[in-house]
Amino acid sequence: MIEKVLIANRGEIALRIYRACREMGIKTVAVHSTADADAMHVRMADEAVCIGPAPAKESYLNKAAIIMAALVSGADAIHPGYGFLSENADFAQMVEDHGLVWIGPKPEMMRLMGDKITAKRAAKEAGLPVVPGSDGSVDTVEEALAVAKKTGYPVIVKATAGGGGKGMKIARSDEEMAEAYRLARAEAKASFASDEVFIEKYLENPRHIEVQVLADNYNNVVYLGERDCSLQRNNQKLLEETPSPALNAEQRKKIGTLVAEAMKKIGYNNVGTVEFLYENGEFYFIEMNTRLQVEHPITEMVTGIDLVREQIRVAGGAHLNYVQDDVHFEGHAMECRINAEDPFTFVPCPGKIEQWHAPGGLWTRVDSGMYTGYTVPPYYDSMIAKLIIFGKSRNGCLMRLHRAIDEFVIEGVKNTLPLHNEVISTTDFIEGRYSIHWLEHFIQNRNKQNG
Ligand code: MV4
């Protein structure tokens, strides 16, 4: 039984975790940098420990400081949230070695999925469809050319340790291969500990659809539907929705069942997200995220399942409360990520929030740690709120989202609310017709028109 959770994160997700704990009667310990002394999560938690100065490397990424904070405060578990140390298998192992519960998957699962080659191999062996390409790493240009001969061009060279779209290069012919291969390796070497790369057929215009899973420690697994995360720019998601406008109930059940069965074979536990590219009616596994995701609330809206509560329950050794037939999908949900950024140039815009008024009303959820008078620090991610809306139909959800955006008042920092308003007013979005490249093209055309 978990009685006290240390929340190793900040911002809205720290608050989200606090709320789940509070509803479960679990005590909470917040950790924070000196820059976050007046943050909402610090005020709300039962206890707070300052773990270092503003730079994340010295505070939210400081493994020893966080373990120490857990030990001195008497916490029995650590929830990592997303980002920071959430996908760091060494940290998860360290937490367990200190007799604490890691609220996440086993470290070996994090290791398996953290390496894109081993992840892809495991997914394929467990029966998931993968993108055709090299079998494992590609160590020379000659080998790269041979793989491309087999799959046909275009291909994409990817870093095995990759993340955030770094270390990825496209080659459209033999002539382009040497350069793409060299650049991908160089970028990988600069960004990650390893310069290992692999090769896949490049899909030109897919959607990005991810399947949420939930598993206990006794190999019971359920899938909780999918999220369409295609609306993104530079690997930063802008708006997510569920269900995906591209899928029907039958397709959802088919891919969901396949994913749940695969996770059972792999022995996965806690929450996870299996990412696919989706093109011409086919799914292709690309990677798996071994953590709670930013966009998890839209899944909560259509299933009624509190994902953080379930994470804590199963980490504490509880069995899943339901089998797949108990999971029902109802209605439609969308999430807008609101960033403190210039909505035209996307330059971060930290500073004092002169006025904050969040919308409310039926089926309107705002996850945020902001308040009037708070100063957004410049050291961390620029996301300041998530606006999460439910409707019985996609159109009902969309109408409510318009209403909620109109109600939102944010003054003092530039933010992306105006961009959301524009995007959800387009015919393409209204009709659900968009791929991973849509937003980039939309912004290009808009900037051309406005000079
Ligand atoms: C791809 C792809 C097309 N074909 N793989 C980008 C980040 C990394 N997670 C995987 N990514 C991609 N892999 C093949 N074989 C296109 C992308 C991609 C992308 C994927 C998901 C969401 C947004 C994206 C934006 C650009 C490229």
Report the top-level CATH class of the largest domain.
Alpha Beta
Distance between the termini: 60 Å
- Structurally, the number of domains stands at 3
Percent helix among the residues? 25-40%
CATH superfamily of the largest domain: ATP-grasp fold, B domain
Number of helices: 15
CATH architecture of the largest domain: 2-Layer Sandwich
Main beta-sheet annotation: 8 strands, antiparallel
Describe this structure in words.
It is a single chain. The protein is of the alpha+beta class and 451 residues long. It has three domains: 4-86, Rossmann fold, CATH 3.40.50.20; 132-201, 2-Layer Sandwich (Dna Ligase, domain 1); 207-449, ATP-grasp fold, B domain (D-amino Acid Aminotransferase, Chain A, domain 1, 2-Layer Sandwich). 35% of the residues lie in helices and 25% in strands. The protein contains 15 helices and 20 strands. The chain has helices at residues 11-23, 40-44, 63-73, 89-97, 107-114, 116-125, 141-151, 174-191, 249-266, 296-303, 307-315, 394-407, 417-423, 427-430, 438-449, and strands at 4-7, 27-33, 47-52, 77-79, 101-102, 155-159, 168-171, 197-201, 207-215, 221-233, 236-242, 270-279, 282-289, 332-339, 351-352, 355-357, 364-367, 375-376, 383-391, 409-411. The strands form five sheets. An eight-stranded antiparallel sheet has the order 13-12-9-10-11-14-19-17, with helices on both faces. Helix 4 (89-97) packs antiparallel against helix 5 and helix 7 crosses helix 8. The longest helix is centred in the middle third of the chain and has 18 residues, at 174-191. The protein is globular and about 60 Å long. The model has no long low-confidence stretch (mean pLDDT 97).
